[in-house]
Amino acid sequence: MKRLEYRGYDSSGIAIDSTIQMKNYHNGFENSEGNNLLPSETVLINLVRRRGKVAILVDAVESLLKSTDGTVVFDCHIGIAHTRWATHGEPNEVNSHPQPSDSNNEFLVVHNGIITNYGNIKAWLVSI
């Protein structure tokens, strides 16, 4: 990311996936034998975005890691990061990338430029 900073230093963000064990979790999705039909693990997206240079993002990630109890294991399968040079919208955390679909981070998007048909895309996503 530091090498990409020349492409944008208004804001930056990073997202990585991680899994957690779902203990004592009853979700109602069970077969006739009482076995859970859903996986015993679920994917969480850890998203950190900051306004300013990549060093500010690095500091934020390091601070978050220091706040853990030391037993947290990030079993990562994929990560995505982005640096932004604002061409549309303010340079702030909300406009930083990756952009989450919702508060649950069901999916994330990184793009360059302006999405001119965002209204059509939003309408389609809301309808599904």
TrEMBL record:
Keyword Heme belongs to the record = no
Top-rank taxon of the source lineage equals Eukaryota
Q: What is this protein called?
A: glutamine--fructose-6-phosphate transaminase (isomerizing)
Q: What is the lineage of its organism?
A: Eukaryota, Metazoa, Spiralia, Lophotrochozoa, Platyhelminthes
Enzyme class, first EC level, given as a word: transferase
Q: Which molecular function terms from Gene Ontology are attached? A: glutamine-fructose-6-phosphate transaminase (isomerizing) activity
**What residue ranges carry the coiled-coil annotation?**
none
Q: What is its EC number?
A: 2.6.1.16
Q: Which UniProt keywords apply?
A: Aminotransferase, Glutamine amidotransferase, Transferase
Give the matching Gene3D superfamilies.
Glutamine Phosphoribosylpyrophosphate, subunit 1, domain 1
One GO biological process term: UDP-N-acetylglucosamine metabolic process
